[in-house]
Every structure is written in structure tokens, then in C-alpha cells.
# Entry
Amino acid sequence: DARVTQTPRHKVTEMGQEVTMRCQPILGHNTVFWYRQTMMQGLELLAYFRNRAPLDDSGMPKDRFSAEMPDATLATLKIQPSEPRDSAVYFCASGLDIGQNTGELFFGEGSRLTVL
Amino acid sequence: AQSVTQLDSQVPVFEEAPVELRCNYSSSVSVYLFWYVQYPNQGLQLLLKYLSGSTLVKSINGFEAEFNKSQTSFHLRKPSVHISDTAEYFCAVSFSGGYNKLIFGAGTRLAVHP
# Structure
């Protein structure tokens, strides 16, 4: 049963600490997205990759957030230093883009981050 | 730029009643439209999508949505809801060449009561 795997599922940390969230996309998918979900802002697109190349990270606070894909099976989202306003659920999603937009993204179960 | 507006943040309804969740979009280019569902403590799942062809699209669990280009709408309907339909529903838009990038609406929480 192919699915997107995210770790950790839950993370509680103190302000100023580094946080790294990891995502294993579905094997064979060539697009990976990071979304952040909060009550106030809803679902915000932070960054996305196609064939491991970053296409757009304009939704990310550049001074503290970074997103990478060291290989096709791993995407990471790092926050350094973390702040209380970063508390949210972070979703990773993957999809297959073959030139024709199918629109279907497969979401992981999310990483719930709480920054105290 | 594309944007999506979901007009209702919450929709309470009794079991077996019909429901409509409204979605309007704004775009200067042709778009593809989607509804995703999120059950508590889970990620989002695709419910149905419009890419081209018939403007009425249906899901396997009885939901349907109709693409209305003149009204820039993609409302979601179900003639008779079940308790298990209680969830948050997100309308989303993407566009040709967008590499599956989805722009989501704020979501509508559907609460089905017995």
C-alpha cells in the first residue's frame, strides 16, 4: 500500500531549537510539496520540488526555513531557530507529473509541531 | 494569480439531509478543480476532480460537483449525508503547467448530526 510517510508525527520543542521534519514520497512520484496547516491561515504552500529540483519556495520564511531533497526518497523541511508562531501541522504530499496535470496529490498524515 | 473561496466555514446538517458546500475560484488562465476531504488527525484525500470533459463529476461515495465556468464555481453536493461524512472539505485549483501545484480554499467543516 503506497503512501507518503512523514516523521515525526508529533514534535514539542522549545523556542530557538532546530526542528527537522522528514518525508518519504511515494516511490516513482516526481513532485513533492510541503504545506503548513493552521487554524488561522488554513493550508499554505511552503515549497515544492519537481525531479528533486526546487521550483518555488516563495511561501517559506527564508530566514529560518529551508527545504531540500537530498535524494528521490527523502524530502526535508528544517526550521532554525523555531518560534512559537511556527506551531502548526506540516504536510508533505507527492504526485506524478508527466506533463499532463492529473491534480492528484497524495498526502502524508502530517507532523504536528508545537513550539513552546 | 489563482485563488479559491469557500463561502461557508461550517455547515451543520442532519443525517440523510442533502448538503451543498460552495466553492468559487478566480483565475486568469484555464484551471483544474478538485475537492479534497480531511478526516480528523489525517492527511487530505482526493474526493473528486474536474480536468476536462463532462462538467459533472462524481465520487464513489455519492458526492458530486459541477464545474460552472460562467459562474466560476465548483460546488460540492450530496443528496443524503451520513454521519461518516463528517470531515473538513477543501476545494482546490491548479493550472496547466503547474506541476500539480494546488491552491486550497480555507475549508468547510461539515458536521452531520443524527
Remarks:
- DSSP finds no helices and eleven strands in chain A.
